[in-house]
């Protein structure tokens, strides 16, 4: 396992000893359709893990199980010291305070300004004081390069800008893990670059990240680990050069067809 | 004292008058409403303005006031106006504003390409409206029109204000004699519910079907 | 037909009827405002309840809404006013009117707000949940503001209809505008004139109410104020 960078917040414990996210034989069914057929993998502190695969391979579902948007059927997921279990009794609230997620469709709150979108959760969930929350908003917006849009409403922004605000909104909760669910898929090609750059900066800064992505060039450049999912299983795993030397015919075919 | 068979018969007679009023109101309101809707989408600004004003004014006047206005207003012509006429006329006027406004929306909701296609076939304005637009608008209008018919049935209860003996008034009269308000007005309410509920449900079902078809 | 309109009774020196009209109008306004405030609160609560996870609560609200929407307000008023009186409850006509209007308008309000809640996309809720917001915070910060902004025109329309419907409260001797009109009519026999005056007053009230809601939308929804677009 590559130790790419150590998050500033991490203390003496070695990264390998405490994975930030660990899937333990996770199954997930929608009705009679089994989407995840027992997957296991771990994400170390500061690691960037890319989940790739065809649509329907279960990669988005796996990601959404991490913060409980989908409830797993059997198995368990350890997330930042909390166990996500099938009974749904896991302390989802604690998990969600530590895990940020960015969606394909941005999901910014349309009735709130950029600043209000960002400060809402810190103020409501962490009871951060308003002035402090505003300072925090300015800080994360600077990180995604949108300081001048602080007073705008989402509909006034381009898709790429909205997605960067969504990243800033997640960062404002100072998460230990960030999840990205095909965050560039809804964007025009010319807008994906600005979003990928923000994500790359985050990765270089030591953020633990799990991504579902179709951006193979990005994965090959930034990922510490690439997980190829196929028919609900982890089919092949490897470091960032995995795509240049695929071993299974399925991955070879997937790489060959581009997507 | 308890409710006698005669009381029940009296309530059912009232129900018949309620239904009659609703039918008269719907017929009158529908005819007038269609005129209002067509004027509202007319080429002539004067007609559009007149229909718009009619909608705004009528929708701002309570039905009981319209009933009194009809009653006294027709009275000044020297006729002795039957309450039935005053109430039916008022409901028709009131309904024309609401139906006219709804139907205007349905006419305008017919895709612009349909209007253009009709023009391209060299249909004249009347042919375009009657042969192309209205049939499609009708399909859109059915759910909300049935929904409004529920409103018309409920509105007939306002005939009470000039003492016309429909369902609510007959309930009131029986209650004055028996003083069993919960029982009597529950029965009256139940009869209204049986008249209105099937229409409400039909309207909702058709609405859902229309939405599902993506119209 | 040579009818002579005569509005002089309004400023009759012995009996200035315009004061009665003003007083009736004031009561109509009070009835309307009280019923809107209370009905909105109850209706919003029912709308929230109808999205609850408790099936019996959802069913109870659905039954209430169906009963109210499929029976005339006047019957509801008689049922409450005469019914409660027969049980020995002493209600002023005014309180009974407010109560009946509140129960009535809340059912319509509930349906309208529920449709607004259902228009909020699932992704919005997922985003709020993922940020750790509680169910209540999600409801009040993320779901209700855009939901209510979206349905405000329908709500305003419904409230105008309710204001007009206060005119039947004269039937239980609430001293509002219609009651005043009826008394003036019986004293002056100027039925046509008095109801023309009353119609104009209601028309003005309806316009004032629509304007108030437009102002409220402007004041309550800063996004709309700045962008002027639907949320």
TrEMBL record, chain A:
Topology class, membrane: Peripheral membrane protein
GO molecular function: ABC-type amino acid transporter activity; ATP binding; ATP hydrolysis activity
Keyword Phosphoprotein among UniProt keywords: no
Subcellular location as annotated: Cell membrane
Annotated keywords: Amino-acid transport, ATP-binding, Cell membrane, Membrane, Nucleotide-binding, Transport
Source taxon at top rank: Bacteria
Coiled coil: none
Start and end residues of each ABC transporter domain: 21-255
Major site of localization recorded for this protein: membrane
Protein name, per record: Amino acid ABC transporter ATP-binding protein
Species for this entry: Lichenibacterium minor
Lineage of origin: Bacteria, Pseudomonadati, Pseudomonadota, Alphaproteobacteria, Hyphomicrobiales
From TrEMBL, chain B:
Localization terms from the record: Cell inner membrane; Cell membrane
InterPro entries noted in UniProt: AA_ABC_transptr_permease_3TM, ArtM/GltK/GlnP/TcyL/YhdX-like, MetI-like, MetI-like_sf
Membrane topology type: Multi-pass membrane protein
Entry keyword Calcium: no
GO CC terms in record: ATP-binding cassette (ABC) transporter complex
Ranges where the ABC transmembrane type-1 domain occurs: 15-203
Biological process terms in GO annotation: amino acid transport
Main location: membrane
A Gene Ontology molecular function term of the record: transmembrane transporter activity
Pfam families: BPD_transp_1 (PF00528)
TM spans (from-to): 15-38, 45-69, 81-99, 177-195
Annotated keywords: Cell membrane, Membrane, Transmembrane, Transmembrane helix, Transport
Entry superkingdom: Bacteria
Similarity comment: Belongs to the binding-protein-dependent transport system permease family. HisMQ subfamily.
PANTHER family per the UniProt record, alphabetical: BLR6398 PROTEIN, MEMBRANE COMPONENT OF AMINO ACID ABC TRANSPORTER
Protein's name in the database: Amino acid ABC transporter permease
Taxonomic source organism: Lichenibacterium minor
From TrEMBL, chain C:
Domain of life assignment: Bacteria
Keyword ATP-binding: no
UniProt keyword DNA-binding, yes or no: no
Signal peptide, first to last residue: none
A GO MF term: transmembrane transporter activity
Limits of the ABC transmembrane type-1 domain: 25-213
Membrane topology (UniProt): Multi-pass membrane protein
Pfam families recorded: BPD_transp_1 (PF00528)
Annotated transmembrane regions: 27-49, 61-82, 88-108, 155-174, 194-221
Subcellular location per the Swiss-Prot or TrEMBL entry: Cell inner membrane; Cell membrane
An example Gene Ontology biological process: amino acid transport
GO cellular component, one term: ATP-binding cassette (ABC) transporter complex
UniProt keyword list: Cell membrane, Membrane, Transmembrane, Transmembrane helix, Transport
UniProt cross-references to SUPFAM superfamilies, sorted A to Z: MetI-like
Similarity-based family: Belongs to the binding-protein-dependent transport system permease family. HisMQ subfamily.
Annotated PANTHER family: ABC TRANSPORTER PERMEASE PROTEIN, MEMBRANE COMPONENT OF AMINO ACID ABC TRANSPORTER
Protein name: Amino acid ABC transporter permease
Organism: Lichenibacterium minor
Species lineage: Bacteria, Pseudomonadati, Pseudomonadota, Alphaproteobacteria, Hyphomicrobiales
